[in-house]
Amino acid sequence: MQYQRLIKKGEKLRVTVEEDGSGATAVSVASGGYLKRVNQKILLIIFLSFLFCCYIFSFSSFSLLGAFSRESVGFGPYEPFIAPLCSGISNGTICCDRNGFRSDICIMKGDVRTHSASSSVFLFTSLKNKSKIPEKMKPYTRKWETSVMETVQELNLVYRDDNSSLSVFFSTGGYTGNVYHEFNDGIIPFSITSQHFNKKVVFVIVEYHRWWVMKYGDIVSQLSDYPPVDFSSDNRTHCFKESIVGLKIHDELTVDPSLMLGNKTILDFRNVLDRAYWPRIRGLIQDEAANKTGKRFQELGLKKPKLVILSRNGSRELLNENLLVGLAEDIGFFVEVLRPDKTTELAKIYRCLNSSDVMIGVHGAAMTHLLFLKPRTVFIQIIPIGTEWAAETYYGEPAKKLRLKYIGYKIKPNESSLYDEYGKDDPIIRDPKSFTRKGWDYTKKMYLERQNVKLDLKRFRKPLSRAYDFSIKRIGPVYSSY
């Protein structure tokens, strides 16, 4: 027996469809206390009349079909942006969209409960017309990389027969520990996936790391009103009415507005960072004022654009960094050398870069901090030989989307330490593509791990002077900073 409820002039109309043993179908219509039994031909007439009415009303401001669709609330209009194949799924359903190159996304709608002991997320439902095929899911955003995906915990998404918050499941495993991957594979994707829930969402973390939560807690708090859940260690059963398993990712360090509700961009993500770190920055400023330890430019009598050099140790080290500082000061910059490590508080790095006019660094994961620069500031990326594609793809293009003034400085062979080691005629120097086309491992071992840079300062003066002129025009005749 199947029921449908229609609203008609404030009156409830019940249509009951019955099938007897002979296969004949009948309809019982009850309104108030009135009951009429009709034969199959009248059923057909009623059905066609109903379709005609829906067609007519679809052109008016009130639509029966629209009313039905509005009865199902939840992810609603966000589903096409998260998992297009799962748009408008009904209650009691698990739906997975595996069409993305970078990540899979599953949506679970109904009575969702965690069971960490079995690495499972259960969907309890009494609906009998579902195939109830379980799904398996690794909630990490690099599904094309078999080697790293083998290290990510797999979740079982299972129907069970038989709260009120939403949840997003994701992993902080994989390449977590590298700042580029922490932002690109994790933080930006979980912002993309969850920002439209207005903080009414719980993050359930697979392969939970306490240090990660401490490091990025300020950002997490801008996207959720609730503490994150450690899926593996928290043996309690957590209940949700809807869940997303996996994260949506667009491209390298970016947000594609065409795939976002409200056409949000990477600049909107940067606004999240602003809200996350400014309360802490204000506290740092107040502490410095109280202790008289702050180096405010105006107190020093300086009205100069600020240039920050992101310093590296080990591979891709800038061997004549001190001379670069002197050159920049001669041109007219106030120079600060930033040497962050894994223990450096992100709010302090954000404060330093957010107040700068120019950032310089040699290609590497630390360039991810370009996200901390204000729009229309200058980002100069020093590009060692053999790293051109990666430098432009991972940082050059994202910088332009952030509306930075991007300058890519490709070093000459004689500016590389490999030149002294191998000589100008070696294929490593003369034809880097012959090595990089062999794969990432060759590129990494030769051009990332064994190469340092010694800038030709006469040649580098030109882009540095361009950055100075651009900064002066942007900030105007009077410069102020916090």
> Which consecutive residue ranges, at least 5 long each, have pLDDT under 50?
1-38, 51-74, 297-301, 478-482
Strand composition percent: 15-25%
Number of H/I helices: 15
End-to-end separation in angstroms reads: 71 Å
Q: Roughly how many Å is the radius of gyration?
A: 29 Å
Major beta sheet, specifics? 9 strands, mixed
Q: What is the strand tally?
A: 18
Q: Output the structural class.
A: alpha/beta
Helicity, in percent? 25-40%
Total domains: 3
Tertiary shape: globular
Transmembrane segments: 42-68
Keywords: Glycoprotein, Glycosyltransferase, Membrane, Transferase, Transmembrane, Transmembrane helix
Organism: Eutrema salsugineum
InterPro entries: Glyco_transf_61_cat, Glycosyltransferase_61
Characterization of the model:
It is built from 15 helices and 18 strands. By secondary structure, it is of the alpha/beta class. Strands 5, 6, 7, 8, 9, 10, 11, 12 and 13 form a nine-stranded mixed beta sheet that branches. The chain has a five-stranded parallel beta sheet with strand order 15-14-16-17-18, sandwiched between helices. Its main location: Golgi. It is a single-pass type II membrane protein. It is found in: Golgi apparatus membrane. It comes from Eutrema salsugineum (Saltwater cress).
